[in-house]
Structure formats: C-alpha cells, structure tokens
Amino acid sequence: MSVVSHLINGELVESKRTLDVTNPSTGKVIRQVADANVADVERAITAAQEAFPAWRDTPPAKRAQVMYRFKQLLEENANRLVQLVSEEHGKTPEDAMGELKRGIENVEYACGVPELLKGEYSHNVGPGIDAWSNFQPLGVVVGITPFNFPAMVPLWMYPMAIACGNTFILKPSEKDPSAAMAVAELLQEAGLPKGVMNVVHGGREAVETLLDAKAVKAISFVGSTPVAEAIYSRGSAAGKRVQALGGAKNHAVVLPDADLENAANTLMGAAYGSCGERCMAISVAVCVGDETADRLVETLLPKIAQLKVGPGTKRDLDMGPLVTAEHRDKVLGYIEDGVKAGATLVADGRDLQVPGYEEGYFVGGCLFDNVTAEMRIYQEEIFGPVLCVVRVGSLDDAMHLINDHEYGNGTCLFTRDGEAARRFTDGIEVGMVGVNVPLPVPVAYHSFGGWKRSLFGDLHAYGPDSVRFYTRRKAVSQRWPSVSEATRAEFSFPNNQS
C-alpha cells in the first residue's frame, strides 16, 4: 500500500509511524500517510531556517516568477488533483474543481507580490532627511489546515507567505493529505529552492512541536473553534503571530419580499454542497413570518428529495459522503438530538443507502423546521447536510438572533428591498455578508475572515491582510549631511514645528 511521505528540504521523507487514509465513499483504506514525530518536525524546521536567508534576499520579481510557473502547473495537473480530493475527502469532482480554482486565484494574487511589497517614501521630511518604509519577511512560518478544503485552504497561506520571502511548513489534515502533498510537489517543480516549502503530516504531536518551536515566527490555522482558540492562546503566549480561523453558524435571512424560488435554489447549494462540510455553509434559514417559512419549506422539500447522492469520484452528483465514519456518526447524533429537542424533521436523510457503496459514510439532505435558539442543533456547528429553519417576526428579530450567536463568520439576506439590505449589512455583527449571495466568500484580492469566535487574531486570511500577516514593516529615516554642514547637539524631541 502506498504511503504519503513528508516533504522536507526538497526530498520525500518516510516516517516510522503511519496513519490510514480512507476513501469515504467505500469505507476502505486506500493508502497511508506518514505520522511525524518530534524529530521529523524539527528536521523540517531546520530546513526552513537554513533556506530562509537566501530566499529572503531573492528579489520579489524572481519569487513571483516561481508563482507564475506554479500557477501553470496547477492548471495543467488539475484533473489529477481533483481526483485525489474526491478519493480522500468525498466531494464531487465538480466541487473539487471549484475548490482548486479558488485556490489558484490566490496564487494569481501572489504573482503580484512585487507591487504588493512596495513601501512608502517621503523626501525631505526634515532638513536633509528622507524617510521610507518597507515590508520584510518574518522567517519560518507555519500553516495548519483542515480536511474540508485540502487543496484550497493551503493555497490561502503559503503562496503569499513564500512570495513575501518567508519559508513555510505545512501541516495538512491527515484525513486527506494527498492533494496538499501533490500541490506542494508541483511548487518544487516550479523551481522553488529546497527547504523553502516543507510538508509534515501527522496529528497532535506534530502540531504541538510546531507551536512550541522558537524558530517558528507565525502560525495560520483553519479548523474548529476550540482548537483555534487553543492554538491562538498557546502560539501567542510563545510570542508568535497567530491567525486562527474557527467555526461558524451561518444564517440566511429570508424576507417576505424575497424571490423564494431563487432563494431556495441557492440555499440548496449553500446548505448541502460539499455535504455541508464548509465553514461558509448556510446551516440556518431565518424566515421572517410564518408564511415565508411555510413557503420556503414547501419549496425546499421536493428539491431535497431530488438530491443526487453518490460516491465522490462520480460526476453529475450533488453530494458525496461525509469524510469519516466518526464524523458521520457525529452528524447523526445532532439529528437525533434535534428530534428529541422538539424540532420538526421534515426531511430525513439518515437512512440513505447508495447501491454498491453500502459501507460509505453517506447522509442524505436533512431539513428541520420550528428550530429555536436554545436547541443544540441551532447553537453548534453541525458540519453536515442539515438545514434548520427558524421563524421570527421581523428583520430586527432576525438581526438580534444572529448578533447574539457566538459565531460571526458568514451570513446573507434574501430580499428585493434596498433599504432593508443596507440596514442589514451595516448592523449585522458578522465578518462576511451577502445580499442575495448565500456564500459570500471574498475573491482572492479581498480578505477572508469572520468576527467573534470565528476568528482569533487581528488579520484575516489571504488578500491584502495576508501581506500584512506574513511581513513586518520597517521604517527608515536617513540623513547624509554635507561635509561643511555644522551640527550641534539637540536635546528636545525632534519635530518639524520649530
């Protein structure tokens, strides 16, 4: 059985320990992945440290040339990368291709790094004194990424980190490591020097070693809120710059004037796409008025019944399986809990069977009505194909509901009313907001991130914030006095007023 190795200093490195990688469509182990110990991680850190001085001094234009070649290789190898995502994660090929393309957009943005790293200059800020600032890399930086976007989320991080002159260590999810590894190998093929990009696989031991290493200057993380908060606390206490993106409970508010057919169609993709395993998935539909809720549920039910569910490697499907048996059981537990709490399960996907794939981790589309704010299925992130309908009396009630929730990742409003949309976008306490756009994921030249307990740290992911996260500003003031210029001691604080 093949083993996914570490990538350290440009070489594939085996490990004494391995973990199983399962195809969630079949429930069968298809390969293994190296499980890093402390020595493996320290070897990667040393490689990144040693590669940093030369890479830091490489002109940004030359770093950008590597990114241009990398982008071309990603496009040329797209089908192979998509197959790996579908095999190990379970998402459909079309969904996997969409993920990869959004990742490539971040590489495109990193290609513009010579422009993005331009500092500021002021001539003659004082007598014969010029001042400027520039952006300099941090050193060794780390990315820890989740299972749900094995190709895209790493591409949020290391293209810009590397383009800014840092060296990088990626710790991808051990559940679906092959796509992240294949993408990293393409970066080596693009001409990146050895040691600039390293990949180590594994679990908690690998993560803790990276968190505690003095040589690591910054950590970017995407995952659940409890882990994000722990990584932020531990990394910050160790003096590192940390950006930790956590969980979500994303609401879609449906006003009575909304185009219900359009809202229902877009909600289907937002709630059930990728089997709900997205941090931007819509998991709550907040309907203003009982009539709106009744109409929405009535419109959704036949669409849910028509969902095409099957193995992730098969085309023309709407959903594949959940990523692991453990996660499937967790989602089923939430559904059972919702039923016990008194919510109305109007669409029940628990008994879904896919012929020929009976051992796969499948759950069909589920829809709860009459969900209330105290229920666990409302409060917590389910991360599965479960949509909850909450009924409220007004837009203000809907906004209070959303603003009171501990998460503030994404939200959207369906309406034809411009005034209502403006009030919503101004007053909602959420980091990413859509109007008639259910998945308001920013494009690569904006930045991605939520509010409240959906993000720990001051800077969002990718886009302009990524340049700030992976660099530090240096301000320089310089004077070259003439030979004949007389100088005297000045004891007051320098200023331009006297």
Query: For the report, how would you describe the main beta sheet?
Result: 7 strands, mixed
The figure for the number of domains is: 2
Q: Report the mean per-residue pLDDT as an integer.
A: 96
Kindly report the spatial arrangement of strands forming the biggest sheet. 15-16-17-14-13-19-20
Provide the CATH architecture of the largest domain. 3-Layer(aba) Sandwich
Instruction: Tell me the number of helical segments per DSSP (H or I, 4 or more residues long).
Output: 16
CATH superfamily of the largest domain: Aldehyde Dehydrogenase, Chain A, domain 1
State the helicity in percent bands: 25-40%
CATH class designation of the largest domain: Alpha Beta
Kindly describe this structure.
It is an enzyme of class 1 (oxidoreductase). Keywords: NAD, Oxidoreductase. It holds the Pfam family Aldedh. This is methylmalonate-semialdehyde dehydrogenase (CoA acylating). This protein has helices spanning 38-56, 60-76, 78-89, 93-110, 113-116, 152-163, 178-189, 204-212, 225-237, 260-272, 290-305, 325-341, 376-379, 395-404, 418-427, 463-469; strands at 3-4, 6-8, 11-13, 18-23, 28-34, 120-126, 129-137, 140-144, 167-171, 197-199, 216-222, 241-245, 250-254, 282-288, 344-347, 366-369, 386-392, 407-408, 410-414, 432-435, 451-452, 455-456, 471-479. The protein starts with a strand and ends in a 19-residue tail after the last strand. Strands 15-16-17-14-13-19-20 form a seven-stranded mixed β-sheet, with helices on both faces. It folds into two domains: 3-246 and 454-476, Aldehyde Dehydrogenase, Chain A, domain 1, CATH 3.40.605.10; 250-435, Aldehyde Dehydrogenase, Chain A, domain 2. The protein is built from 16 helices and 23 strands. It is of the alpha/beta class and 498 residues long.
